[in-house]
Write a structure and sequence with these properties.
The structure is a homodimer of 427-residue chains. The first copy, chain A, is α/β, with parallel strands linked by helices. Chain A folds into three domains: 4-133 and 304-324, Rossmann fold, CATH 3.40.50.720; 138-301, 2-Layer Sandwich (Dihydrodipicolinate Reductase, domain 2); 342-424, ACT domain (Alpha-Beta Plaits, 2-Layer Sandwich), CATH 3.30.70. Chain A is built from 14 helices and 18 strands. In chain A, the strands form two sheets. In chain A, strands 7, 8, 9, 10, 11, 12, 13, 14, 15, 16, 17 and 18 form a twelve-stranded mixed sheet that branches. A six-stranded parallel sheet of chain A has the order 3-2-1-4-5-6, with helices on both faces.
Chain lengths: 427, 427
């Protein structure tokens, strides 16, 4: 029986773990694939670096030549970034190789074109590792739930922001201090923009929504807010309301059956919600489906070994497909749902309002909200300096209504300031 | 493109939901499979019963003739039981049909022979619905983690017993009363033996261990204890120790790499363990793997619609395989691990001991335990009548050592009674 040959692009944290497990788990991989599989080349940016456990003779700086080799069956892409990764993946397809990628940014931005290219060349494109690290999520969505209808996904899919929010919650720290701590501990990168501004979570949300709803969701379709504006006061207000603040990726099927909404933003979650207990750099994703009901998937969302676990699971699948002469279930976008605007999304909202003192202030605030169709669910009032601080939660209202109500509140004579408007999820 | 034809065996709670979703989700199923799929016949035990939404002309009492029909591509078996189900499934294979089953008892008892029969006829045998209802578990274990190495599975896989233990915990009820409540609410069957004696969980443990460790685990290999001996005093003792009692299915890879142990028994779990929060009839399964680390899967463990979700996911997979002319990843038992005896399993233990009063009693008890190599981790002593009640937890010890120690304690002059010996897991 022939040996399947694998080209590895990238030998950083994930790549070196992939190479290591391909070595130590070689017998298991062969048994599960039905044929031996071996690393035929490893493309790196800089030659000559010490790479413990990586055979020197496999290392090359010529990635283009590696993916073009006629004997390569599968290319594993873990270099990240978009342009270079796309070109290499496209070349791999053209040369007959299937691709396993962990590249959420690329898949979210160009997944449709890449799937089409893979299909045109009769090869596979798998990327379980692109979303929620080690957690089996894309395969269960695409295959296990293939006979069901997913209505909602609600997930913590970025470990860095979860760690930062966790620090703010447990230490009462402000955002800059919590971020500094996360950076020092290796949970945040030197340039944390992709994580803290929600770009990373938005890419994952686009991928999840596309697979769950069998439609085309582009990165631009995702409403995105990061955590940089969250303050210690917001966290304290959440605590006072029996909640915790989490950065959530939320994908909803519209009640009309023709649209979906996909968004990433901080939200208050009640403490008794299962996602509220997800701490540190862990990820967890709730899935609600017609027949299955509520499912939850939990595990490590990042790291070399956990990501390698997902990459190798995909490797086994695409190798099996290669041997069988087939391709796996690819992107199916038959539902062609439209992606609705954030303005139409209906949630509860938490709002903090600094107001002047006066017996009629609550009535005035309620009146302004009511004019915009926003109804108060709970309200508490506390003295603050010479005025008062209102903390209120609303009944479900559209984002557009809430935005208009907040603008009107800001213009009201009795209002000093409106702060801490955060959406409430999970109840 | 041809239409794939499906025979449904059984039209009870699960079967009728399968039929219903095949109707309402027909367009989705066709898009995901790549060809339309239709119900070609439904075998029932008794004709003439009212079956809302089930087309009369599809119903037959001749299951043998149905599975032997040349035009049937897939047989869905949801009748349960072993002998009749096995004969029908075997006949389906012989007539060229793939099979989707929800039958944990049959798969656990005869999975190896059935897989061999399926392979011999070049068809598929899938049974995601057999373990943990709607939760995608077998596919993630077999496919997503195919490049990893699973070391441990720890799960709540029986909703009935979890509901009963939950009732005992929240109401302080004794077992018979809690079971009565569960029966009245439909969570327990009229004859609850399979659930409360752990047979159902043991079948699931055998299936999980076989797939997770790629070995052959028979139902007889599973050490099994049910919940019928659990008392309100046990639950109270667990509470006092900051724990909750759960019926767990536990599959462990031995440290030597050549053996596994598979067991189902009640165990104390610390309240802060994620499985401790799994309430009512829900299921949840922890999986520990080399690279992935700790994963958790959570969801509804039973019921018509949740089980139908898993059945239909399998239906899509086997239909896709049929169209591609391939079979999916079947049973792989290449590791040929031995299944070790319960006596060798190492856990912490909780023990309750009624002793005579006396300053030297603790020393005597500790001495008896020490003679058997069992070391005390925590101990508390309370007056009880004219004597005392000791509640203690041990450091990890083998089941054999603990059993011998308990026998020796029972023979000791200072010991009235040893009760409430429960293993401790999850710490």
């Amino acid at each position: 029986m022939r040996t399947l040959k694998v080209a590895l692009l990238g030998c950083g944290v994930v790549g070196s773990d992939v190479a290591r497990y391909m070595e130590t788990h070689a017998a298991d991989l062969a048994a599960r694939i039905g044929a031996p599989v071996e690393l035929a080349g490893i493309a790196v940016r800089r030659a000559g670096l010490p790479r413990p456990g990586i055979p020197d003779h496999l290392v090359t700086t010529d990635a283009d030549a590696l993916v073009a080799r006629a004997d390569i069956d599968v290319v594993i892409e873990v270099i990240g970034g978009t342009d270079r990764a796309r070109d290499l993946i496209t070349s791999a397809f053209a040369h007959g190789a299937s691709v396993v990628s962990a590249n959420k940014a690329l898949i979210a931005a160009e997944g449709r074109a890449l799937h089409a290219a893979a299909a045109a060349h009769g090869v596979d494109l798998y990327y379980e590792a692109a979303v929620a690290g080690a957690i089996p999520l894309l395969r269960p969505l695409r295959e296990s739930l293939a006979g069901d209808r997913v209505n909602r996904i609600l997930g913590i899919v970025n470990g860095t922001t979860n760690f930062v929010l966790d620090q703010m919650d447990s230490l009462g720290a402000e955002y800059p201090q919590a971020l500094k701590e996360a950076t020092a501990l290796g949970y945040a990168e030197a340039d944390p923009t992709a994580d803290v501004e929600g770009h990373d979570a938005a890419a994952k949300a686009a991928i999840l929504a596309g697979i769950a709803f069998n439609t085309d969701v582009r990165l631009d379709d995702v409403h995105r807010e990061g955590i940089t504006a969250i303050t210690a006061a917001d966290i304290a207000a959440a605590k006072a309301a029996g909640c915790v603040v989490k950065l959530l990726a939320i994908c909803d099927r519209g009640a009309d059956g023709t649209s979906v909404t996909v968004r990433v933003h901080p939200a208050m979650l009640p403490l008794d919600h299962p996602l509220a207990a997800v701490r540190g750099a862990f990820n967890a994703v709730f899935v609600e489906a017609d027949a299955a009901g509520q499912l939850m998937f939990y595990g490590p969302g990042a790291g070399g070994a956990p990501t390698a676990s997902s990459v190798l699971g995909d490797l086994v699948a695409v190798c099996r497909n290669k041997l069988a002469g087939i391709t796996g279930p690819g992107a199916v976008t038959y539902t062609q749902l439209t992606v609705g605007p954030m303005a139409d999304v209906v949630t509860r909202h938490h709002v903090g309002i600094d107001v002047t003192d006066g017996a009629d202030v609550v009535a005035k605030v309620a009146g302004v909200l009511g004019e915009h169709g926003v109804s108060i669910e709970t309200l508490s009032q506390q003295r603050k300096g010479s005025g008062c601080r209102l903390a209120l939660s609303t009944h479900p209202a559209t984002d557009a209504a809430m935005s208009a109500a907040v603008a009107a509140l800001r213009a009201a004579a009795c209002v000093h300031e409106v702060t801490g408007t955060i959406r409430i999820e999970g109840r």
